[in-house]
Amino acid sequence: MRVSSKDRRVRFMMVMLALSASASLSAQQQRSSDSNIVVDGVPLPDPSTMTEGPEIKGVISARTGNRLKVTSTDGTSTVIAVGDATQVKAASGLFGSSKKLGLDALLNGLPVTVKTLQPAGGMGNQLYASQVNFRKGDFKTASMIRNATDQRFEEQIAATEALRGRLGDIDKYNIKNTINVHFDTGKAELSPEDKAQLCQTASTAETTENALMLVVGYTDSTGPEEVNQQLSEKRAARVINYLQQACGWKPYRMLTPTGMATADPLAPNDTPEGKAQNRRVAVNILVSKSVDDL
User: Which pLDDT value is given to residue 147?
Assistant: First the structure.
């Protein structure tokens, strides 16, 4: 059977992703079994000495100890301290009552709105969460992913394991479709056309039973490698956040994302047209062969 160039590219992505996930998991295990971000030796601020800060909206993308990382829809991340004075509230609906919860309710993958405090006079960049709000429905979904409750059907098990970095061989998946979202040089903004395409892709994939998504960001050869790596990750995060928050794609159906910088270009980087093709995020729709071939 002949292997298409698209399949070869996705195979390459999956191999690199597996290696990256393995290295990341080992590093995390050395720090802590549940650690995703590192904040070195910075004590919690005293809330009574702080003033009102910005309101942060996004998804909890990491947590360690008394700090959260919240990633917004534009791909930017903010580290926010939490403590005993932080109020955690879950609302049941637009006009529903709110229930106070503990800090252990702040799970990875949970969409939140965070009211913050900051040092008086705007000195420093450390933020403290005075209140964290989220919807009960979102908390239920995040809990299902975290705890793998009784609804452990095959799709959720596969996706949850992938989110934890235990990604299987590409040969275990059938590639149902791949779309590319393109970006301007040095940018990570989505155009209205891109947004419509992403939601259409999510809607189509939703009709495919057990479908999962693999999102990978890329850049052209412009700029230093370190900057390109960060930019490719930011582009992937922007696409993922839009798919989940605007298009309704469930977090537990998203395989672990990554940024590949200049790797695996679609076209040569020696022309403006080639570079334009390489400034992209690839959204791959995959289905496990064990399910798809039944």
Answer: 52
